[in-house]
Amino acid sequence: MIDGPERLCQDRLDRLLHSLSRIESRMNEGFGEREEVIRNCILALLANEHVYLIGPPGTAKSLIIRTFSGFFEHISLYETLLHGDSHLSDLLVPTLSGKSLLSCQIVFLDEVFRAPRDLLLGLLSFMNERRFYHPDPVPVPLMSLFGASNQSPSPADGLEAFYDRFTYRCILRPMESRERFFQMIFQSGDFWERMTDGYEDGGFLPDFFSLIPGLARMRLPWEAETRDGLFELRRSLGNEGVFISDRRWKKVVLAATVNALYEGASSVLPNHLSGLKNVLWSYPTEIRPIERILSSYR
Questions:
Q1: Which of 141, 155, 157, 208 is deepest in the core (most CB within 10 A)?
Q2: Which InterPro entries match (predicted)?
Q3: Same domain for 279 and 135?
Q4: Number of CB atoms found within 10 A of residue 103's CB
Q5: H-assigned helices in the chain
Q6: CA dist list (Å): 40 to 1, 115, 141, 170, 262
Q7: Does residue 156 sit in the same domain as residue 268?
Q8: pLDDT tens readout for residues 90-130
Q9: CA–CA distance from 84 to each of 79, 88, 114, 118, 147 (Å)?
């Protein structure tokens, strides 16, 4: 099924994907109208990529990341709230629990775009190379970095390189469903903390770490019609004024491949392009034309 530098044992891979699917189902039961965000968190972890969450306060951005990371006993979370006076050195100081930016597999930076520009640009090699220069390069165990904010950067901020490191970008909005709204406001305060309780795969797969690097470098075959569809997608987006760099198209290919892998496919099919919305947009105004174009791939 998979060719690549490291062939993965199929039963281990199947077990991993099954466990992630169960986590997704369990989270969808507890979080209303957050299916797209939850799926993107899982795909990002599989792809060794990063996620940006944007939405007004109180839309469960932080809670989703804490709950998601809580399913993995062997993965640690480093979380911090950034602000205008934050310094990169602050992130290197261990917390009371002994965690720091350099020691955890999942990193969550809340209010990420309130941080000074120098701090964010100082994280580029950390996110891209999994190395932190201090001043010599230090390898880090980072799998995925999650950033959250209620505002996106503007081109004038000079943060395009940092923003581009977030392969997945998700918008969270206040709940619209009456049923989900009442479910949310009447839940007990510890409901989400108990979501991972009794989860029999909670510490699942001690060899999870050995699987992830192979997945990030995997190669599923792309059908000829999927390649044609990708090129047509590029043309259609250009006609709508949506520009995507060649570097980001490589991320698009990775994201489509991970879509296929997570769905248990043996090759990348045209319908696996339909779930790429949150990999393609840079600014919210681009979402509607992207959705319209992708609807033809379902």
A1: 208
A2: MoxR, P-loop_NTPase, RavA-like_AAA_lid, RavA_ATPases
A3: no
A4: 16
A5: 10-30, 35-47, 61-70, 117-121, 124-128, 160-164, 178-185, 208-216, 224-239, 246-262, 277-280, 287-294
A6: 23, 24, 21, 8, 11
A7: no
A8: 999 999 999 999 999 999 999 999 999 999 999 999 999 99
A9: 17, 12, 6, 11, 16
What are the residues facing 146 on neighbouring strands?
A: 51, 108
DSSP 225-277: HHHHHHHHHHHHHHHTT----HHHHHHHHHHHHHHHHHTT-SSB-GGGGTT-H
Q: What is the number of structural domains in the chain?
A: 2
pTM: 0.91
Whole-number Å distance between alpha carbons of 68 and 53: 14
Token reading at 169: 């970008």
Same domain, 163 and 39: yes
46-76 pLDDT, tens digit each? 999 999 999 999 999 999 999 999 888 788 9
Tell me the β-bridge partners of 148: 53, 110
For residue 210, tell me if it sits in a domain.
no
Domain that holds residue 127: 11-185
pLDDT, mean of residues 286-291:
97
Same-domain pairing of 153 and 266: no
- Do residues 47 and 157 both lie within one domain? yes
Q: Determine how β-strand 131-133 pairs with β-strand 137-139.
A: antiparallel
pLDDT band at 80 (very low <50, low <70, confident <90, very high): very high
